[in-house]
Amino acid sequence: MTYSDMFNGMIWRFITDVPEINFDSYTQYDWGTRLFKITYSYTFGNRKLKEVDVRSGSEDERKRVQ
Amino acid sequence: MNIWEVNTWQSGTASLGIHHSLTENQDISFSFDYLRYDNDNPSSYHNTTREDGAEDIILVSKVTPISFRVASFDYINMLLPGFTMEAGGKVTLSRFTNTVRVEQPLSDDTGLNAATLDENIFAGYGSFQWELLMGWQMRGGLRYEHTDSYLTSPSEGVLVDRKFGNLFPNLTVTRAFGITSKAQLAYSRRITRPTFNDMAPFVFYIGPTTFVSGNLSLRPSVTDAVEASLQWGDLWLAVRYNNVSDEIAQFQPFYDQEQGALVIHSDNMTISRAIGVSVSTPWRPWSWWEAQIDASVYRHWYEIDYVGRTVRRNMNRVEVTMTNIYLLPSDFSIELSGTYQSTMPMGLSHSDRVRNSTLALRSRWERVRSL
Predict the structure, then answer these.
(1) Could you tell me the CATH superfamily of domain B2-268?
(2) Nearest-Cα residue of chain A relative to residue B68
(3) In B99-120, which positions are buried (b, 16+ CB within 10 angstroms) versus exposed (e)?
(4) Partners of residue B366 in chain A, C-beta under 8 Å
(5) Mind listing the pLDDT tens digit for each residue in B283-296?
(6) Residue A3: enclosing H or E segment and its boundaries?
(7) pLDDT of residue A54
(8) Mutation test of the interface with chain B: which of A60, A63, A66, choosing the one with the most B Cβ atoms within 10 A?
(9) Contact, B252 vs B347, CB < 8 A?
(10) pLDDT band of B371, cuts 50, 70, 90
(11) Where are the domains of chain B?
């Protein structure tokens, strides 16, 4: 069981203050990251099977679609 | 303003990987990945002006298919005991199409913004790892990437036709002191390409004259990083210096005089440098309480060009993470972790401090069975 962001502290506030061009703004995003989660994992099948690790070449590209 | 938005992503991946040992000391591997993403992001905005009660409705549809074809080949050879070399190549063909339609039914206005980005990257690399005497180890390599970026629009023709190449050297020297301690000095150069969300010309209205959008002219950033670190048992200390050219800063405001609107999008910073110190150590006050503390302090200097002016800033930043595990009877444990991040620079803007805390209760049941 996991309870994340218990105190709702993950609110992002962006402040822009550029006196050089007389620009001032304040933006607030509440991502709603408070989450209660129950996880159960179960291993099945033959545990003696050897794992094969083949490197994927597309890890960088996956990060670009986030 | 009432906003309704749906943002649906569908994705699929097909991968093929082949690994073959040529001899006892030589291996080759080949991989091919096909990635496909489809984003459907319609939204509507109903705005009423308080002063005169005037109404406006904006309907936005955005459809963005993205595809990647990635093929890579690697060859590894242990030429001598303690000396291994590696070489390989990688080809990435990507296509990203973005179609945004904006309708204002009350004023009968319709706008269409469509663009296709074809980006092809051809890369080759060589690297080595050398185990020297007296606990010394050296790793190094050189990678070359050639990028072709071609952005077109049915209405405006060719918007970007950019061809460029980058060399990425890296070198790490390590001196081990026994089994649990080592000192390391490392230099690396790496590239960070803009995400497709940073570039996509989507529109998300915050107000009638303020909207978040993409920036198709974003350039990739290149980071030169130097790090000296010391691991002494469980204690780890590091000092690092980063120099980033064209660092990508998100949520940058830009006043578009033609549209009379404030556009918020990602933009490249001119200069971004940072020096930081990090420390990481475990802490075990009692046999049932295990903790891990990670802390970093940074000093940032950066510059960004904004409507013909150079804006210079500097800022200190602190990050602290602490994870506590309390061991309970019957394989139960409680994990309490917290993170604090102080004010962080983001180009012209800065984000205020954030805190995160997580509480977890874990249990492990071993299933004993003979196969």
Answers:
(1) TonB-dependent receptor, beta-barrel domain (2.40.170.20)
(2) A61
(3) bbbbbeeeeeeeeebbbbbebb
(4) none
(5) 998 999 999 999 99
(6) strand A2-4
(7) 64
(8) A60
(9) yes
(10) very low
(11) 2-268
